[in-house]
Fold each of these.
Amino acid sequence: MKDDVVVDARALTRRFGETVAVDALDLRVRRAEIVGMLGHNGAGKTTTVRLLNGVLAATGGSATVLGLDPWRDGVRLRRRTGVATETPAVDDRLTGREGLTFFARIYGVPEVGLARRVDEVLGIFDLVDAADERVGGYSRGMKQRLSLARTLVHGPELLFLDEPTAGLDPVAARALDDQVRTLRASGATVLLCTHNLVQAQALCDRVVVLERGRVVAEGTPAELARALAKGGHVVIDVEAGDSVDPITVLRRVPGLRSVEAHDAIAGDGARRLRMQADDRAAVATAVDALVRANVRVFAVEPEAPGLEDVYFALHERARSVVAPPTPPAAAGVES
Amino acid sequence: MRAIVAKDLTVVRRSKAVMLPLVLVPLVMVLVLPVVASFAPRLAEVPGASDIAQMLDTMPEAMQAQLAPYTNEGRLVVFLLVYLFAPLYLIVPLMVASVIAADTFAGERERKTLEALLHTPTSDTELVVAKLASGFVPAVLVGWASFALYTLVANVAAWPVIGHVFFPTVMWWVLALVVGPGVAAIGLGATVIVSSRVSTFQEAYQVGGVVVLPIVLLVVGQAAGVVFLSTALVAAVGIVFWLLAAVLLVIGVRTLRRGELLARS
């Protein structure tokens, strides 16, 4: 249903002089979806958020966000969105409570109940004890939590989170993930810009990978992994003997792209290796080569490709591609 | 809009670097200067002080006519308190507007809190008006409060010499009510323009400080007997200052559009 589409960007483009920050970006985000936007610094993530929230005008293409034109209806749109910027947003000279109260007022939270709402959000991010201290004395993690609290204080329908876990300790990062899931359960939509691939894989229904302002891949993390993974990684436990080096044996096997010692401990008398094979036949050949070299094989286990594999594969591909890429297929990887 | 002004002024109040000049400069201008001026007649007894009397004789005739009803001591006090210090008073609204504007424009960008504000549902107009009001309103209020205090201190300090309430003159009313706000607007406009080209509060404040030059020229011109700050001239200066302020503000406001601010944040 069209009403279900919260973000609908078509060929959205933003140029800064000769530089194309966002290049004909097509993006559709449905209500209550968590969509991850991945990409290096300068890939166009932050500019995309600025365009979609109507604080920066597009130089090409169009976008509809929550049924509104971001540039023409920016004020109305921004009442319904929340943006956690990369930099902490609350002034160091204010207390946490003052900063939140300021933003609550600007976002139009009614005065009746405003103080209660501020307390509630402070509580969600475990900032009640420090609420009346100046933000200048907060740790980086506390500032980041306050920034997120600010983003949520008015109950937005659409959240743009730009690197929200930067500076957060693992406990706070998990609390944020839980909060994002809770918001989604209440019907909110989240566009998550992140470098944290583990978080993106755990949290996102769908991810979009940006490279030089263009979408180079889009789909669920599993879809992308399947589309990209050819052969994939295999973990293999072998006998830890002195006479034959299994890594040397495996490096002679055709079809193996890489062989390395695995970080994990395999157990008594065993070594754990990680190899990347072109296909299943290469794995069989590798095991056969080990057996022929009198290296005992205890276990062979395929390692499911993760978002990290997808991300780096795409990055490698983008670096090697000279010709401009073609538009991406839905739930697929651009070839 | 009120929320932004209130927040900006809270942030300003909590910075010693910002508050120090905001408190010290008006105190020097409206307390120290008139008290020192009240001792000027005693200086006349010092050898060489007759130069001051000679200097007054070189002043424009219109000014000498204004000083004529007073004794020699009174002439010196009135010259200092009414004429020579008049342009110096303008430093108060100018400085207040410039300091606050530097902190709320360049300072906000320096503290990296600007982008979050741009993502809020304030319109460009609200944002501009709120930011300008944050600098202009306090500058005008501090200027008027300083004028009131100066009036009190000048009359009290000069009483032994003058013997009656002689201040404020019509020229000073025009100065405080028309020229002062105009000078504040000039400081605001200049600082907004400068803030768009520098990255820190200190830079914005220091570079924006060049707008004090016209005031210095008025002081020097009057001390040299070239300029006589009559009510008509002050009114004319007020009109010129407001026109200059309008030009600076129009240029400055162009730098305050969301996209422009964002590009530099």
Note: Residues 124-162 of chain B form the longest helix (39 residues).
Amino acid sequence: MTKDTIYNYTLHLADNALILAQRNSEWCGHGPVLEQDIAITNISLDLLGQARSLYQYAATLMNELNATPLPKGAPIANGEGQAGLATEDSLAYLRDVRAYKNCLLVEQPNGDWAQTILRQFFFSTYQFFLYQQLQRSTDATLAAIAEKSLKEVTYHLRWSSEWVIRLGDGTEESANRLLNALDELWMYTGELFIPASYETAAVEAGAGVDVTALKTHWQQRVNEVFAEAMLTDATAGRESTWMQHGGKEGVHSEHLGYILAEMQYMQRVYPGCEW
Amino acid sequence: MSVQELEKIFLSKIDQEIKIEPKDWMPDAYRKTLIRQISQHAHSEIVGMLPEGNWISRAPSLKRKAILLAKVQDEAGHGLYLYSAAETLGTTREQTILDLHSGKAKYSSIFNYPTLTWGDIGAIGWLVDGAAILNQVMLCRTSYGPYARAMVRICKEESFHQRQGFDILMALSKGTAEQRTMCQDAINRWWWPSLMMFGPHDSESTHSEQSTQWKIKRMSNDVLRQKFVDMIAEQVKVLNMSLPDPQLKWNEQTNHYDFGEIDWTEFWNVVKGNGPCNKQRLDARRKAWDEGAWVRDAARAHAAKRKQRQEKQIA
Amino acid sequence: MAIRLTKYYYGDIPEDKGGGQVNDRVMKSSSKEAGSPATGGSGDGADWPLWEVFIRSKQGIDHKHVGSLHAADAQMAIENARDVYTRRMEGVSIWVVESKYVHASNPDEAASFYEPANDKVYRHPTFYDLPDELTHM
């Protein structure tokens, strides 16, 4: 197994967590009710913590890959820091859109509360089954991160499932808003289960999770929760939906560019500073 | 018992440092003053999330992002504790919030200033939270039980807020020339508004000090402000930065720092809504509230449906 | 010229000192909110119900009242309590009870309720003066 494979695989997991953390954090101070403002921020903090652990690991891998540090000012588009050494921050702040490997789902705008909830529910369900498997990775670090993160994700899944149920079986307006969110987001769910090249390689190496095998679990859980939300028919007939993909290989929606422009602005304007 | 007798019992409790609890008899004015003060305090926490929250998406490192996110989230929690304390006095949270949105209720003016650079996040933590903490530590001993308990919890959680602010500035002060400029600039812009946080001079009052007599407030504005100046004037040396006040000088006689006069015209103008961000802050709060209405309705409707189903099952 | 000035505290600016924010449009929209439940919050036009939160800080310790919060239902109340009151590892178990179901004793009856216990000193072990030779008691 090559370190390169694990590096790319780890970055992909990290990017997913960071971009969704960044999106959810936009709610902080603007939530529909104080208690839920706090709840969504907690989820954002959990995801940010996962992203940091994963970036730190990816940075270690990269620095081992580049046993000879690159000269100062060498290309930073791949996420090396100034001195040629990668850090969690150089990976998060110094890679451009095409180098980001997150799925399209997490970069979609917050929209209204229904859209944020549904995005979280789809992603948490996916992450739940993914991390369950990843706990058994032959890569000890990834297995450990998965084990710790799974506890958090279990809660995210519970919280977001309940909100899907509440909105689906709440008022007419909330049910409609949830259905609108489903129209917006459904086309981004297919990508989760189409492996990128590094995912396939990681599976072959025993370190990664076969995402194609997660699909039935995911679908089943979604159906169960939708049934409880009185939306049994909502996903019916959607099998034929054309699924967007490409994010995991760096071909993103236009949204990611703006997310990175904002997130990376300080590091770009003041390169090489300590904060 | 007559009102006079009840009032006598009430005042004797205050004298003996016995906390007043929600179901105890209290003078209407005491209740009103508390509701006003606690809800202003709560609004300050909630509106205070906005200037800092503004920088969560742009925090310069992942560590700083996590710290800031946790900090702003804490403020939501603090607002919640305080709204709950106000509710023990017979208001509803909704009414309190609507008073904020209509402009009837106030919040601390400091949050009507903009956060322009990352340095401002450090300055807010160090100066604004520093000033707030002095006030809040005093309020841990306030006479109304639920308010005092909320303050104890808040003070415990706030202890990291001022440190993280100083830590941000410390990193800037040790950084590049640009970072040091950013640091000094932030201090310059936040210093005077922080002093204003303590309110007008004691000497401007000819009014009887009801809040002090009732032990809601336990130290005067000027005493607290002086404490703050003495504290910050020393801490700023550690940063190798200066405070933007040519009159700031140690006074051997008083054992305190002398300092210049606050621009009170600016103070009252910001209170009255003419600060740089008054409109923006209130608009953001109203928008969050209005756009959240359907969410609150949905949750309530769902809870009612679920309850009905449960009752049916039992029957 | 006699100017009557009032002392205003941090966090206690009197309502009449406001001005800039109260304009007609705002007042209209806010009174609409208060008056018409459909926008401000609907049904009964009120908040989600208030809940009291009790937390066990570690196994073997009683649940202790820590504060309150709003939630639409019990499940949400428990989750909100987790997010609001255990962010710093304060708890291992949560109880919530809707505030309206808490019944409290009346402070006016404090004298008749609690003072009669004052003279029952013989209920406390320190009341008994026993010989030093006696151990394990």
Note: Chain A touches chain B through 48 residues (CB under 8 Å).
